[in-house]
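Example 9 (inverse folding). The structure is encoded as follows.
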């Protein structure tokens, strides 16, 4: 059943109740245990580079491991394990300076050998790691140790956005030679215990190089669904979560002791169409599905009016192509399907419903499709089972929060796990090569516009709306900061809990 339409007054009321930024509060006490709810599954492992991932993977990694730098909304960096990156005149040689006096959780010293070991593992094609897609322009043989705190990268071709690639939040560093179950990172928290699909417990690492965490422990508690996570928040079984039902926000707003935080970073929930498989091999079928979607209804019903309409291309509101906002056109959709020989199409649409609005979005598409004789059977699945066949599904849901430069490598990848729509467009790939050859932001922007126009015309995803990542937390919790670019609650360094 679809959620009822949200009235304008309610949207305004909810927006007023949402706070942006962080939950800062002066004079808050320290210590205690923060309980964070996530939607997860039993496939989870402690390997910082596991390919099958649910939300607990990202939250856990953010507590125990660190990247070279954290990206900021203004395009700059908050340096973490690196202190700076420089390059030569033609962008073929890049030098990374590492932070001194950083210790792993066992007290040993972090350095160049650890950085090189991680990059070598990621680049090894036998490991088939997702992160290789972000740095596949590198030659493993071109990575050199200059000294204990300096690593040099020699590239075969110029690569303008090198800094952007190597500071990906998922490229994180562990001790060379350590075992995955040790989770031997440098982060502000260290491992206490881990039970797949149930709970991860981490404690403050007092040897951390930066500002020490204020809470004693963080418990990352797993739930199978967003409904369960939401109910746990309302029942005071957890203190915070970014995995909540947006359709429950009206109830949460009226619940004493709970606060709503709306990130200013947008999330795109997508519906993917496998472009190398029937019926979506025919671009007319993909175009028809996009025209069936009622975007305004989806924004109001699936996302409670929080967000903006999207236009079937990835990335966010920068460097936009000169194309009209796509609107529902059932007559044109019906004609396209008839021309493709797919009238009265019947197809399954699979979802794990692991992001707010995801289930409601596909239900809206299914209801609208009925109006032109198309049957879309929505199949809701447990997250673990859903992820096990990621890259094999034909009609399915996903999500993205990444900037365009970071998302494109997956779109052009030959790896089914990464390019899960199996879309292969020669013109798009050619433009992508030009995009990554330049470091000029204006030139990059013009190329992005052309690429997004191609996605709009013949891509393989239905991107209906962008909506903010909404988190809910106890009023006793202070100092929560939404992570950039996801908007999720990953950073617990400044958190305090009123006792």
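The amino acid assigned to each position is listed next.
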């Amino acid at each position: 059943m679809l959620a009822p339409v949200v009235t304008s007054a309610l949207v305004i009321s909810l927006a007023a109740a949402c706070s942006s930024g962080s939950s800062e509060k002066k004079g808050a006490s320290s210590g205690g245990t923060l309980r964070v709810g996530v939607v997860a599954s039993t496939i989870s492992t402690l390997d910082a580079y596991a390919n099958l991932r649910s939300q607990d993977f990202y939250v856990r990694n953010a507590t125990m491991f660190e990247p070279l730098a954290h990206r900021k909304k203004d395009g700059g960096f908050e340096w973490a394990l690196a202190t700076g990156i420089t390059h030569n005149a033609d962008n073929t040689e890049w030098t990374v300076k590492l932070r001194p006096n950083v210790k792993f959780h066992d007290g040993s010293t972090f350095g160049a050998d650890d950085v090189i070991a991680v990059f070598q593992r990621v680049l090894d094609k036998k490991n088939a790691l997702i992160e290789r897609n972000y740095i596949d322009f590198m030659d493993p043989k071109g990575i050199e140790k200059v000294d204990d705190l300096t690593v040099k990268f020699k590239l075969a071709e110029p690569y303008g956005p090198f800094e952007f690639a190597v500071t990906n939040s998922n490229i994180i560093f562990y001790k060379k030679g350590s075992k995955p179950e040790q989770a031997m990172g440098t982060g502000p928290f260290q491992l206490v215990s881990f039970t797949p699909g149930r709970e991860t417990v981490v404690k403050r690492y007092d040897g951390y190089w930066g500002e020490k965490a204020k809470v004693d422990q963080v418990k990352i508690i797993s739930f199978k669904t967003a409904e369960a996570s939401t109910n746990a928040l309302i029942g005071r079984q957890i203190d915070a979560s970014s995995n909540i039902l947006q359709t429950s926000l009206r109830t949460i707003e009226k619940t004493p002791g709970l606060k709503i935080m709306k990130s200013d970073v947008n999330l795109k929930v997508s519906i993917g169409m496998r472009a190398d498989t029937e019926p979506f091999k025919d671009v007319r079928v993909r175009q028809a599905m996009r025209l069936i979607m009622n975007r305004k209804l989806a924004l109001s019903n699936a996302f409670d009016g929080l967000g903006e309409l999207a236009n079937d291309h990835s990335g966010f509101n920068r460097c936009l192509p000169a194309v009209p906002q796509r609107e529902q056109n059932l007559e044109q959709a019906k004609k396209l399907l008839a021309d493709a020989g797919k009238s009265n199409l019947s197809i399954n649409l699979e979802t794990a419903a692991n992001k707010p609005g995801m289930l409601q979005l596909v239900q809206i598409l299914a209801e609208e499709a009925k109006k032109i004789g198309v049957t879309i059977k929505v199949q809701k699945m447990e997250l673990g089972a859903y992820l096990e066949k990621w890259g094999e599904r034909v009609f399915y849901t996903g999500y993205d929060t990444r900037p365009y430069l970071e998302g494109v490598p997956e779109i052009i990848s030959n790896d089914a796990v990464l390019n899960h729509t199996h879309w292969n467009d020669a013109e798009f790939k050619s433009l992508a090569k030009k995009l990554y050859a330049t470091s000029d932001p204006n030139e990059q922007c013009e190329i992005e516009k052309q690429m997004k126009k191609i996605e709009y015309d013949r891509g393989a995803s239905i991107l209906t709306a962008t909506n903010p990542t909404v988190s809910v937390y106890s009023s006793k919790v202070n100092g929560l900061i939404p992570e950039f670019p996801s908007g999720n609650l990953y950073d617990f360094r400044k958190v305090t809990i009123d006792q």
